[in-house]
Amino acid sequence: MAAPQRKRANGTAESMASKQREISISEFFTKNRHLLGFDSPAKALLTTIKEAVDNSLDACEEAGFAPRLYVEIKPDRPAGKNLELTADSGEKAANGNQNGKNGKTAATARGARNEERYKVIVEDNGPGIVQAQIPKIFGKLLYGSKFHSLKQSRGQQGIGISAAGMYGQLTTGRPVTIYSRTGPTEPAHRFQIMLDMKKNEPVILSGDETVWEKEHGTRIEITLTGSYKRGQHSVDNYLEQTAIANPHLHLTYKDPKGETVIRANATTEMPPEAAEIQPHPYGVELGILSRMLTDTKCRNLTSFLKEEFCKVGPKTAENILAEADLPARKNPKRLVQDDIQKLLDGIAATKISSPPTDCLSPIGEELVMAGLKSGVEADFYTSVTRPASVYRGNPFQIEVGLAYGGKLPGDELATVMRFANRVPLLYQASACGIHKSILTSNWRSYGLQQSRGALPTGPLVILVHMASVWVPFTSESKEAVAHYPEIIKELKLGLQEAGRRLQRHIRRREREKDAAKKQNYIQKYIPHIGDALQEILGIDDAEREEIITTLTDTLERSRKL
Q: Residue 406 sits in a domain of what CATH number?
């Protein structure tokens, strides 16, 4: 019998208004943590390490320290217990008594989770963090120094590491532990922090001076539920690719089984420092321009254009204002909406030079090959660094590296390594502009086998790196690059140039193989030629052997040539 339908009650504007309340950013991501890359236990473990490693590398490079990182994943789950965890209650010990004939525990019957628990430790030798900033960096979402800075960096939004701590708190109820020291003469500090989900504010459980042997650096410990596995999407693969894209990195990694892997730096050369630039006029939209006009300290439009944007000199500013039909001495704060639209149209109608590229820090062709050689055993390596280009006023550069032959499997699809600002992208390949560009390239024209709509088949590793002041990721989890036409074009050009170099190598190898085959045939018949000459010319055995030796030496010299 169908249950009777519940009659809808009449509501009022007042009753509906009483239910409205502000939602903090941390509350939103608590319910939508999949947007940040915490949608599965395995990915959550990887994302946590990724965010901590990215922050450490950025800090070391910005301070000029050659990065030395220690990463450890330590099993943390108490033996013989199932843990039932909620965001409010934290960690609870589940009842271990048998429940029913099937032998399930009472905790399992109530839906307790059975994922493994791990303590993630990431330690660096960077400049450390000022004591007052530690709680906000690790206990507040959307807090950071890179969002408003137009220069290449791994972090962008100020969400990643605090979101990792939030995930650990949600799944284990444990706080984030941070050690930091800013110099050998400064005291070290140890903080334990939790995040107030409703207020998006840090809750400091403890924050005292402590004894720590490092002269400077930061150490973070996060306990979380996760799943450790090996393979394409594993922490091991992420760290291996990180070492390839950052050949100046010295990495020590200890996995949950206690095995330690040390990846020594392939170079002592630090990447070039990226300089911060002003926004480019072509990259601003109406709302952004309106806000800039309101916030500026400039007193006229000419100085506003010259000081608030890059690549705008006196002549360019004059041309923009002439196109916009606006007076040069007008106060920016007094522009109305129609004036702002005129100014934006004037920018679009004026030819402005591309933004400077010193805000970028590409890996470089030599170091791309050095990274590939340190991680991939192959016969042939090549790399291409494209000239800087622009999308929406944002400078970017594309780099492509190829490794071919050697011990790579010849009957499998090529391995693709995607990077954005030196950070490996392991998930969402099908949604990524980098992956699409590789799939739609004609690798058959370069001597490789390729099925329609698939990666090429052969002993090949394809590395693609995008360096930009602002990488257009498709989501907050930062795993796929958006399909901007300007970016796709540069990706295609880089892949084509590297492909042509590979084609020359494959053709040369085929010619050498064919020549060697012919020489083997000749070498096989040299003794018969000696016998024939002996019979025709009537020479003795010693002369016959001399002829065979001469022919063999001639063949060897031609083989070396």
A: 3.30.230.10
- Clarify whether residues 318 and 456 are in a common domain: no
The whole domain housing 537 covers: 507-560
Q: What pLDDT does 38 receive?
A: 83
pLDDT of 96 reads 38
> What's the domain count of the chain?
4
Torsion over CA: 168, 169, 173, 178 (sign) = positive
Q: In degrees, to the nearest 5, what angle opens at C-alpha 507 toward C-alphas 501 and 513?
A: 135
Query: What's the rounded Cα separation, in Å, for the pair 333 and 319?
Result: 21
* Contact call for residues 139 and 201 (beta carbons, < 8 A): yes
Question: Are 533 and 497 within one domain?
Answer: no
Residue type at 76 in one-letter notation: D
Q: Do both 38 and 175 map to the same domain?
A: yes
Using CA atoms, how far apart are residues 255 and 237, in angstroms rounded to an integer? 12
CB burial of 361-382 (b: ≥16 within 10 Å; e: otherwise) equals bbbbeebbbbbbebbbebebbb
At residue 329, the pLDDT reads 92
Contact of 371 with 243, CB cutoff 8 Å: yes
Q: Does residue 435 share a domain with residue 406?
A: yes
Among 214, 59, 74, 69, smallest CA distance to 145 is for 59
3-state helix, strand, coil in the chain (%, to 5): 40, 20, 40
Structural contact between residues 446 and 460, judged by C-beta atoms closer than 8 angstroms: no
* 252 in Cβ contact with 260 (< 8 Å): yes
Let me know whether 301 and 326 are in one domain.
yes
What is the phi-psi region of residue 378: left when phi exceeds 0, alpha when psi lies from -120 to 50, beta otherwise? beta
Structural domain contains residue 519? yes
Radius of gyration of the chain (CA): 31
| Residue 159, in any domain of the structure | yes
Examine the domain organization and report whether 464 and 525 are in the same domain: no
Q: What per-residue confidence (pLDDT) applies to 53?
A: 93
What pLDDT is stored for residue 94 in this prediction? 34
Cα–Cα dist 328/299, whole Å: 10
Do 31 and 147 share a domain, yes or no?
yes
Q: Which helix (H) or strand (E) holds 391?
A: strand 389-391
Give the end of a domain, one of 263, 289, 317: 263
Extended strands (E) in 83-216:
83-86, 90-93, 98-99, 104-105, 116-123, 176-181, 188-196, 201-210
pLDDT means per 10 residues in the chain (561 residues)? 63 69 66 76 91 91 92 77 39 38 41 70 94 88 61 70 88 93 94 88 91 94 92 91 92 94 89 86 88 92 93 93 93 92 93 88 90 90 93 91 92 93 90 94 93 92 93 85 94 96 90 71 74 79 81 71 58
Residue 37 is encoded by which pair of tokens?
Answer: 């890359």
